[in-house]
Amino acid sequence: MPPTLKTLGLTVRYANYKDYDRMLSVLTPTEGRIDAIARGCRRPKSRLSAAAQPFAMGEFAFNVRGQRYALGQFELQESYYPLREDLTRLSYASYVTAMAAEAIQPRQQAVDEFALTLHALAFLAYSQMPPQDVAIIYTIQLMAMLGYRIETGRCVACGRPVQEGEAVGFDPRAGGVLCAACTVRAPQALAVDKGTLKMMGYIESIDPSRMNVLRLSARAREQLGAILRGFAAHRMDGARRLGQFIEKIEQVEDSLQTFMNNERNTPQGG
After folding, report:
1. Domains contained in the chain, number
2. Tens digits of per-residue pLDDT, 15-58?
C-alpha cells in the first residue's frame, strides 16, 4: 500500500481529465499546494465528488507514490455554499482561489496563506463586507506574506523619506511610492492619496480574521484597485489576467445597475 498523507485542505483549482476524473489543486497549511488526481470523481454517487468542487474545504487523504498524489478519501467540512447564489461574490471568490493556486507552490509551508484564504472566502460567503474590499485586502496581505511588501515610507526612485502632506505617486513596477519630484518625472506613476497609503499599512498589519472592521472609502477602493492590478501583475504571471477578469465583472455590475435604474424611471403604460 502506498503511504497516505492526511491534511486539511481547500480545493482552489480543478481541470477535467479523461471521462470521469479531475486533476485538483489543493491548498494545504503544511504541504503548500498539492496537485492530485481524483479518479472517478465525476461518476454518479462518487465519494470523491465533493472534493472536486470549487471551494471544497475539509480533510483530504492522499495516496502518495513518489511525487504523484491520488485522492483516496475526503470529508467535507465547509463548501461556502452562499457563494453560488451571488455571481459577484462567486467571481471574487474565484479570484481569491486563483491567486492562491498561482502563488502557493508545492511542498511550501503555507500556514498563514491558508488561514488568510479561508477567512477571505468566509467573509465573501457569510458577511455583508463589500467583495471588492475582501479582494483588495486579500491581495495586499497575500503579497506581503510572499515577501512583496509595498513601500509607503520612502520614495522608491530616490530613497528620500516621503513627507507628511506631500503629493505622491505610486510606481507599480518598483512597488512603492514616489516623492513629488520623482512623480513628475514618472509617466507610469499612479495617483495615490496619503489616506490610501495609511490604509495600506492598516491592511498589512491587521489579523485576517478581523478584516471586516476595515472600511474603505470609494476613493481608497479605486486607488488600491488600480495600484494592486499593476503591482501584482509585475510579480505574478496570472495577476494581470485576474485583474482584467475582476474589471469585467465590475463593468457588468455597472451596466446591470444602469439598466435597473432606467427600468425604474421608465413610465409604465396604463
Report:
1. 2
2. 999 999 999 999 999 999 999 999 999 999 999 999 999 999 99
Q: For the chain, how far is it from start to end, CA to CA, in angstroms?
A: 76
Reduce the DSSP state of residue 24 to 3 states and report it. strand
CA atoms within 13 A on the CB side of 57: 16
Tell me the C-alpha distance between 146 and 134, whole Å.
18
Q: Does 153 share its domain with 241?
A: yes
The whole domain housing 28 covers 4-80
pTM: 0.87
pLDDT in tens, 134-160: 999 999 999 899 988 889 889 999 999
Residue 175 amino acid letter: G
Give DSSP secondary structure letters for 133-200: HHHHHHHHHHHHHTT-PPB-SB-TTT-PBPPTT--EEEETTTTEEE-HHHHHT-TTPEEE-HHHHHHH
For residue 16, the domain's CATH number is 2.40.50.140
